[in-house]
Amino acid sequence: MYSAFASHRNDSVLGLIGSQDSTLIAAHPVARTQATSNQPYTPVELVAFMDSLEDRNPGQTEFLQAVREVAEKVIPFTREHPEYEEAQILERIAEPDRVIHFRVTWEDDNGAIHVNRGYRIQANNAIGPYKGGLRFDPSVTLSVLKFLAFEQVFKNSLTTLPMGGAKGGSDFDPKGKSNAEVMRFCQSFMTELQRHIGADTDIPAGDIGVGGREIGFLFGQYKRLRNEFTGVLTGKGVGWGGSLIRSEATGYGTVYFAQEMLKHKGESIEGKGCVVSGSGNVSQYTAEKLLTLGATVLTLSDRSGMIHFKDGLTEEQLAAVMHHKNEVRGTLAEFASTNGFVFHADKKPWIVPCDCAFPSATQNELDDNDAKTLLDNGCDVVSEGANMPSTPEAAHRFEEAGILFGPGKAANAGGVATSGLEMSQNSLRLSWPREEVDEKLRGIMHSIHETCVQYGTENGRVNYVTGANIGGFVRVADAMLAYGVM
Ligand code: NDP
Prior knowledge:
single chain, alpha/beta, five-stranded mixed sheet, 20 helices, globular, disordered N terminus, binds NADPH dihydro-nicotinamide-adenine-dinucleotide phosphate
C-alpha cells in the first residue's frame, strides 16, 4: 500500500486519488499547506506528504516544521532514486519507532507532591542504538521532543558513527529548585526510564536544563537500580566514565563547522565579529573557541535579554559569565547589573551588526525579520549551535541570499559525535587525552562538511541545508533498505 508521498510520483494529485489508498488521500487531496513568503516552489508530492503527516500528528507544529525542512530536500532527491521512494523510507523515518510517555511524581522540600510528564522518543535505530539528549524545561511537549528526535536521526547519521536517533525529557523546570529537589526528580524520572534504555539499546545525554548535575543524579539512580556500571548515559563526569571535551564539544564543533565553511570559500574566522545567542553550555564554548581563534564575540543572551559587548567579550568576562550561569544559576540581567554592563531586556542579539551569527539558545529563536536584519547588516555566515533555531522563513531567506548557512543537524553535531566517542571509551574501558578527543572532533566536523559538499553543491555553490539533509538521509535509508520491510 502506497502512502500519499509514494503515490504522487506524477505531478498530478487528482490523477492519483482513485488509484491509491483512499483513506489516506481522500481527506487531503488538495494542497492545504500554504506556502509562506520566502518559501520555494512547493511540489505536489511535498504538499501531499505534509498533509498526510499533519492529519496523523495534529497540532505538532515543531515536529511538522522539522519534517518539512527535511522533506523539501529529500523528496526531490528520492524522485531520482525510486528505490527509496518505493520503500517509503521517508514516511517510515517520520514515524518514530516508539514513543514512551510516563508520569514522574516527586516531593519538594516542603513535602508537597508534584506530578510532571516524562518522555522518551525512540525515533530510529537503523544505524545504531538510539542516542539523543534529555531536555528538562516547561516548554517540553510531545511535539518538541518528536522534532528533536527526528532531527537527531539525520544528525547522528552525518557523524558517520553508529548511532540511531532519540530524544526525551520532561516539562519539569529545574530553575529555582534546590539540589535535593532536582535529585528527587531525577531519581523518580530514571526509575521509569531505566526500563527502556541500556548501553546497547538507548543512551541518553544532556540538553537544555540537563547538565552535569542532572546527569550525575540520573546515572547514580540507574546504577543503583540495575546494579551495573555501563555507558548508559553520556555527559558523565570525567572521574566516572565521562569523556574529556564532551562539555565543550557542541560549541567547539559549531565553530569548527563555521571554519570549514569559511575555508572552503578561501576565508578565515580570525578577526570576524560574531554574535552568539544564549549563555548556556553551547553558547559558552562557542564563545570560548571563537576567542581562541581570534574572533570577536559581541553578544550573549538568555531568557531575560541580551548583553552587547561593544569592545568584544574578554576571556575574564566569559569566565565570570560561566560562573554566574553554571554555579550561581542566575540571569544575565543580574550579571549585567552587578558587573556594570548595559543590559538590553527582552532583546535578541540579531540587531547587532556582525560578520557571523551563532544561534545557540533554542528552536525558532531567529525569525524572518531577524534574518533580514542580519543580512542587511552584512552577516554572511550562520552556524546553528541550537536545534532548528531559524524559523522556516528565516532559513529560506539565508538560503536564497546564498550566505554560508550551516543548519543545526550538521553544525552542532560535534556534541553527539563526542558522546559517541565517550561510548567508545566506555566500551574499551579507556580514557583518551583531551588533544586526542579534540582532534577526532575536528576530523568529524571536517567529514560532515565534506558530506555537505558532496550532496549539496549546486551550480558551484554549496547549499548546506540540502547537503546535510540528503547526506544524513542516505546512510539511514540504505540500512533500512537492507533490513527489508519493518
Ligand atoms: P542550556 O540549558 O545549557 O542553555 C540554554 C540557553 O538558551 C540558556 O542561556 C537559556 O536561557 C537560553 N534559552 C533557552 N530557552 C530560551 C528561550 N525560549 N528564549 C531565550 N533563551 C532561551 O542548553 P544547551 O546549551 O545545552 O542547548 C542549547 C541548544 O543547543 C538547544 O537547542 C539544544 O537542543 C542544542 N544542542 C545542545 C547540545 C549539547 O551538547 N548541549 C548538542 C546539540 C544541540 P536561560 O539561561 O535564561 O535559561
